[in-house]
Write a structure and sequence with these properties.
Largest sheet of chain A: 4 strands, parallel
Distance between the termini of chain A: 52 Å
Oligomer: homodimer
Helix content of chain A: 40-55%
Order of helices and strands of chain A: EHEHEHEH
Largest interface: A-B, 54 and 54 residues
Shape of chain A: globular
Structural class of chain A: alpha/beta
Number of strands of chain A: 4
CATH topology of chain A: Rossmann fold
């Protein structure tokens, strides 16, 4: 019985855009190798959310956590994502799909962004 | 001679989307009150980058750092932002406008995202 984690991001036309999500996934795998971590994208990039969930279910996951890799919560997090999750819960009856707070709204991430932005101004001064 | 910092984000239709940027700005102000910190948005929200820069110049800033509040660097960071900065450097001849790495590509932020995503899966288990 495996557990999965999907880092659900917006996607972009430029393949270099995905680097931070791959980097985040690699750091999570390094800390918790038994957790199956997959990036997934709303648009432009693959896999999409349905593809990532199907892959994790095929790998034996009965529980998949979804962390929205969005800084703010607008229409994509508040409307598109719940709609996608509803469809996937119907498709995968035995699966627990748990969505979490958007990454940019987690206080530790906000603090890291504030520290990094402030450090950047100092580095360049 | 004041120094300014602009947190340059994408913008969205939902006003709640801006919360993490306001939160980041507030944390920076708490640590460095003399730094003039302003969010600015590419689209949907105000001020735009030109408006934020004009405000900081009017407040006496001769140097403004711009941190792209984007997780990944695609067209917005690699093409839109440099074009906007070129225009602003022509408009404000005495101003030093320094752009930095996108916030989501800063290693400390990536590590914070990995830690927060992993903690979220544990919280809910």
């Amino acid at each position: 019985m495996s557990q999965g984690l999907i880092l659900f991001a917006h996607g972009a036309r430029d393949p270099r855009w995905a680097a931070p999500f791959e980097d985040t996934a690699a750091r999570i795998r390094a800390r918790q190798p038994q957790l199956l971590v997959r990036p997934a994208y709303l648009d432009f990039m693959t896999p999409d959310l349905a593809g990532a969930v199907a892959e994790l279910v095929a790998a034996g996951c009965t529980r998949v956590d979804v962390v929205p890799m969005f800084l703010g919560s607008g229409g994509h997090v508040r409307q598109d994502l719940p709609r996608l999750l509803d469809e996937l819960r119907q498709r995968h009856a035995g699966l627990t799909l748990q969505v979490h707070t958007a990454i940019g709204e987690m206080p530790s991430v906000v603090q890291a962004m504030a520290d990094a932005a402030l450090a950047a101004t100092g580095d360049a001064a």
